[in-house]
Specification:
Blueprint: H1 7-16, H2 28-49, H3 55-66, H4 68-78, H5 84-95, H6 107-125, H7 129-144
Helix pairs in contact: 2-3, 2-5, 2-6, 4-6, 4-7, 5-6
Length: 148
């Protein structure tokens, strides 16, 4: 699946004169790298849009959503909703051999979170922003139910 319509990634490519790449050429950890940033941006945007607040309070709320344990919980909610292709990208990220680990997460939480981020990166880079937002919304709704 090639990029469809993602104004941000389209703008970045246009400004820097970058062509489109085949998504299959990206490593799962590269997908997780960009997916982590996109997920964080969505969470921060959602929190700021909910109302002005002190930055330290915004950071604490955002951390509740983006930490590995929370991403694992979100992934457990959205995994049954994934298409076979989406599940494939999640598994590629989850099974990737990473040389780093999270400071405050178990190995299982870290690996599932990496798979979650790889899925977010895949959706972003292929321009599937509506789907990305749909899955994030399901996950954050479940996390919000836990008091985050």
């Amino acid at each position: 699946m090639e990029d469809t319509d993602c104004p941000l990634s389209d703008m970045v490519r246009a400004v820097y004169g970058l062509g489109q790449k085949d998504i299959r050429t990206y490593s799962p950890l590269a997908l997780a790298y960009i997916g982590d940033a996109i997920y964080d941006l969505v969470i921060r945007t959602m929190l700021v849009a909910r109302g002005n607040s002190q930055v330290n309070k915004l950071h604490k709320k955002a951390s509740g959503f983006v930490k590995a344990a929370a991403q694992k919980q979100a992934m457990e909610v959205i995994e049954p909703l994934l298409t076979p292709q989406e599940h494939s990208y999640y598994k590629r990220g989850r099974n990737a051999k990473s040389f780093t680990t999270a400071k405050n997460a178990s190995i299982l939480e870290y690996r599932v979170a990496t798979g979650f981020e790889a899925l977010m990166g895949f959706l972003y880079l292929t321009g599937q922003m509506e789907r990305l937002m749909e899955l994030i919304k399901y996950g954050t709704d479940a996390l919000s139910g836990d008091g985050l």
